[in-house]
Design a protein that fits this description.
Blueprint (H helix, E strand, L loop, with lengths): L1 E5 L2 E8 L5 E7 L4 E8 L6 E9 L8 E3 L4 H13 L3 H7 L9 E7 L2 H11 L21 H14 L11 E10 L11 E13 L3 E12 L2 E13 L9 E5 L3 E4 L3 H9 L3 E3 L12 E14 L2 E14 L6 E10 L6 H9 L1 E2 L25 H7 L9 H6 L9 H8 L2
Antiparallel strand pairs: 1-2, 2-3, 3-4, 4-5, 5-6, 7-9, 8-11, 9-10, 9-12, 10-11, 12-15, 13-15, 13-18, 14-17, 15-16, 16-17
């Protein structure tokens, strides 16, 4: 600890860690402003988190309090340094808004050394990820897709659309889907990624953010990723809330004249020219729909739009397109399209067996390593709440926590 004095009174303090690097410092200005800085050094470059406090002697119970104005922006400036090799790229995105905006990262070369470093970090010792001397290049574990996806994901999280305190961000879930016909990722490939925010929703625990996107090879998506985060204890602001989703496929069989009359009465169902005869008894309709929601409050939509296609099938015919769905409302307490279809139909059972590309632990335990530094380096996620006790404490955590992505990858190894 180094203390600098001015006229016999402490003016600034520096905290040096065991490795000899500056971990914290703060200085008191003449007007009572306290500039408090925390330091992290991913990739060997120092990143500075600036926090501002104010000392007010007239408040004897709690004379020091944090200046909240601009706090989230100061934290985001720090994460532009942590997550982006060129922080100016993140700074340009900080003020951007727009649900549905696609963010892209155009270049990631999968190196064999990078794959082996990733496998070591998650405790995956499978031989299939180690390149042989004469054989083809090694395949890549499915969770490595998150490493490729990470730069595009960070571009989503740094935008104003995800307004919140990034130090309170918790990674909740990862979902992967290998797209039909896609080849396995291999060392030596040049991959890219794209990501967009599909949901921002406030709840009792905080603000949930869902990001969807793809890992891309030779211009074609090979892996779809669906990942969610929680801003703990974020204050509700429903004007920021939205949800863009692909609804579950719904099936409705026209079993009687009453159902047929109800179907034909729906203004949101728009038959294709010459296809009205397809709406007859015994016909099964398949609805493939997408919806866009904006929120007025927790239970009230400010805007709802549902759209998609309708296919028809009889016992003696294959599926053919017969109509479109086109519904929009400026305010609603629910979605009448889905309400009707779920009342008179059901969701399609599309469960698939898990492919053999990776193995889920049926029973057992994955023990997190004492330090998350190896996974931080291998994955590209240098968030210091995983590796630095000062940042973990500042985020209200008892100690640095394991990456959510590590948990996912260790379970799927």
């Amino acid at each position: 600890v180094r203390v600098a004095l001015k006229e016999g009174r402490p003016q600034s303090v520096e905290i040096i860690d065991a490795a000899g690097h500056k971990a914290l410092d703060f200085a008191v200005e003449a007007d009572g402003t306290i500039r408090f800085n925390m330091y992290s050094a991913p990739r060997g470059s120092v990143c500075t988190l600036e926090l501002v406090f104010r000392y007010q002697a007239q408040m004897p119970y709690a004379p020091i309090h944090e200046v909240m104005k601009g706090r989230n922006e100061r934290i985001k400036r720090f994460y532009t340094q942590v997550w982006f090799e060129d922080s100016s790229e993140g700074l340009k995105l900080m003020g951007s808004l727009g649900d549905g905006v696609v963010h892209r990262d155009l270049g990631h070369t999968v190196s064999q050394a990078g794959v082996e470093e990733f496998c070591y970090a998650i405790g995956n010792n499978s031989d299939k990820y180690i390149a042989s001397v004469d054989g083809p290049s090694a395949v890549v574990p499915l969770d490595y897709a998150m490493r490729v996806f990470w730069p595009s994901l960070c571009k989503c999280l740094i935008t104003q659309t995800c307004d919140g305190d990034l130090t309170s961000l918790v990674h909740m879930s990862n979902g992967f889907r290998v797209l039909p016909g896609a080849p396995q990722m291999r060392a030596g490939q040049q991959l890219s990624s794209e990501a967009w925010i599909s949901e921002v929703l406030d709840g009792d625990a905080g603000r949930t953010v869902v990001v969807i996107g793809h890992v891309i090879s030779d211009g074609l998506p090979v892996v779809e990723i669906n990942t969610s985060f929680l801003f703990r204890k974020a204050r509700p602001d429903y004007k920021l809330n939205f949800r863009h989703i692909h609804e579950p496929t719904l099936l409705l069989t026209i079993k009687d004249k009453r159902t047929l009359a109800l179907i034909r009465s729906k203004e949101w169902l728009v038959p294709m020219a010459g296809e009205s005869t397809e709406f007859g008894l015994g016909v099964t309709l398949k609805f493939s729909l997408s919806s866009r929601y904006r929120f007025k409050s927790a239970g009230v939509y400010a805007h709802v739009a549902t759209f998609g296609t309708v296919l028809a099938q009889t016992q003696h015919s294959s599926w053919s397109k017969v109509a479109n769905v086109d519904y929009e409302s400026s305010a609603a307490y629910g979605n009448p399209v889905l309400r009707f279809l779920l009342r008179h139909g059901h969701t399609e059972n599309s469960s698939l067996l898990f492919e053999s590309g990776s193995i889920l632990l049926a029973e057992g335990m994955a023990v997190a390593p004492p330090s998350s530094q190896a996974y931080s380096n291998a994955s590209g996620d240098h968030n210091p709440i995983h590796t630095n006790a000062y940042f973990a404490d500042m985020a209200g955590l008892p100690s640095p926590i394991a990456h959510g992505m590590w948990t996912s990858a260790a379970a799927r190894r």
